[in-house]
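Supplementary notes for students who missed Thursday's class. We covered one full example, reproduced here. Read the sequence, then the structure, then the short commentary at the end.
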Amino acid sequence: MKVVLFCGGYGMRMRHSDTDVVPKPMQMVGPRPLIWHVMRYYAHFGHREFILCLGYGAHHIKEFFLGYQETMSNDFVIRDSKVELLGSDIADWTITFVDTGVESAIGERLRRVRPHLDGDAMFLANYSDVLTDAPLDTMVDRLRESGAAASMMVVPPQSSFHCVEMRPGGEIKDITPVARLPIWENGGYFVLTQEIFDHLPPGGDLVEDACGALAARGRLLGYQHSGFWKPADTFKERAELDAGYHRGDRPWMVWEPRSP
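Structure (token representation):
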């Protein structure tokens, strides 16, 4: 199944200075950028055909894959001055690089790569900046069984803020952490069918336009995931993922052998 990755936005909240021009998907978590971790997750479940929707900072992403160094994340042997890899990450991946515009909305980016989907009945999509340990096979199976047009992974609220309930006179009645509210938010992992294009207007948004229209028709499925899920939408969040990687706390790396 093909995987569409949206990796062309500016990522303004990720940058820690005006001189940081590296696009968000190329920010590092351990020795590899975010986009590699997302792609490795999909490859673990057997989905190794990727379509990259490029825009801002496209050359950084192209250069990374054109000069890919397998030795950064694989064991190897040097013998007679030659490197012999003991494993490989991307040897069996197919990656299509498509310029979808610098200013394009995510829905428009998806519209522009439609010809590369070859009319596939079902495909996957992702924002390229969220890591999870969600069971992708189950997500796909749920959509097939439901007969819906699309599935969106939803997760509990991640905000550390509090909601305040007030009385008419201004007295605070109750304070509740957002994370305890019985609501779910978009987790950024999608399983889609070709029907999604029936609801994507030119320049439109994937969630507000297409998913909103499908939800109104009862054609959108929500896959609830309460396990590990963490975005890297800001510099702080990316730094937390990087720190977790270096201390060995890497639940999103489902391809790694688990300790008994």
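Commentary. The chain has a mean pLDDT of 91. Residues 235-246 form the longest helix (12 residues). If anything here is unclear, bring it to office hours.
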